Amino acid sequence: MIIQKQKAFEDILKSLEGEQKVFLAGCADCAAACKTGGEEELVEMKARLEAAGKSITGTAVFDTACQLGAVRQKAREYEQAIKEADSILVMACGTGAQTIGETLEKKAHIGVDSLFVGQVNRLGKYTERCSTCGQCVLEAFEGICPVTRCAKGLLNGPCGGSKGGKCEIDPEKDCGWVLIYKKMEALGKLDKMRAYQPAKDQGSRHTPRQFTWPKKTPEGIKK
Amino acid sequence: MSKLEQSLAAGHFTFTGEVGPPKGVDLHHVMEGAAVMKDKVVAINVTDIQTAVMRLGSLAVSAKLVEAGVEPVFQMVCRDRNRLALQSDLLNAYVLGIRNVLAITGDHVVKGDHRDAKPVYDLDSVQLLKAATILESGSDMGKDFKGRPNKLEGAPKFFKGCVVTPCSDMVEAQILKLEKKVAAGAQFCQTQAVYDAAAFEKFMNEVRRRNIQIPIMVGIVVLKGLGMAKYMNENVPGVVVPEPLMKELSETPKDQTKKKAVEVSARLIKQMKPMCQGAHIMPLGWDDTVGQIVDAASA
Ligand code: SF4
Ligand code: SF4
What we know:
The complex is a heterodimer. By secondary structure, chain A is an alpha/beta fold.
């Protein structure tokens, strides 16, 4: 899930300076789960913006704000309200905001900060497990990702900064390499620590990334 | 062959010192520090943007030492440069007359004074050693447009070093990584600070049992008093100042601090001398102690 948090309300207001009529957009997926732009959050945001003197021409929670076709289709229901607005305030991730901005031909403002792709530990607590490096090496590390869970992304073992199982950057954060080591030890696979791991091909991280199915539908996938 | 390589190869118990480049361009202190210790050590490490505090670079100061007739150990951290810049700096170092290089991961940027910087770590320390080895073979990490290894116009030749933390609470993982460093091309090793000879002996026995045969130089950070020892115990991972030594420092009168620092360092080195091939003394600015420590440890 794209973990996200709302921007400070003053910053949102500042981005709307000089614009009176605003259309509010949210997303029923990650934004709803992170409580940044689901049904309830849009009601709340509407009330706060109105109290600040804005008029809200409409609100819509898109099913998946990052899906081009779905956004285009749903937007038809709100054509009039979107047309009337000076701008759209998107309470969803950066991909959602850009998808909405590209699709609806209206200035789109962003009301959240997209943090990372993460695991939901519980409502209000999220942690990163994968930084989408494009070439998954989990197999070599017994299912714990050193690219993401080691603060330095080291592939050949821990640095000297690990202490009491925690990372040198923050005593609240586990040292990813202690996790990997302990798991390998428990599984009797410490020999795997001996394997030289070559430098990663960072080409798969060069942005902007895109991925297109080589044929119409890849083998083994039913549409 | 560098003097450091020769000395270790000849089986001499070998001393190295260390200087830290200034934040700014005034070379006065760092050159003076090097001059003070140069006759007592075989080579002098130059730290590389240590603890992620922005300052003059290791490459420039190492080159200045070469100019002054002092042999440097060019420390390289993986934090600030990608593989292009790391390899290029290895070539730069070679043409500037630098022969000893030391591959280090490097403290994270959040430990320093530019916490908002982007950390790089495109290579880790094992991969950096491998990169140096590849350069020595006349190639580099890249490929030409036909997918063949690139060819260098003149290959460098280094004496390649690495580091290890013998008193880490993850010492087994440290040793596993040390094995990989040696396989990747490390020819010598300088350790993180050690203040516990018994722990070091255990570590060295394990290292030799694994058939890691490169020369190992025990690291000694000169203890500038009780406050610093406390700080190290609390804040520097993998460094342990044992209780008896803490007590000894606490009983030292203020005006004897430097004398005590020399005495303690020399005593530790004497204790660990039979176990290893040299000592790397990190004076952290107390440059005049290095010679005294070497003399006292050799007596
Ligand atoms: S290696 Fe780590 S960052 Fe890369 S894809 Fe796998 S889990 Fe994600
Ligand atoms: S302490 Fe552990 S997680 Fe942190 S940078 Fe070092 S090896 Fe990686």
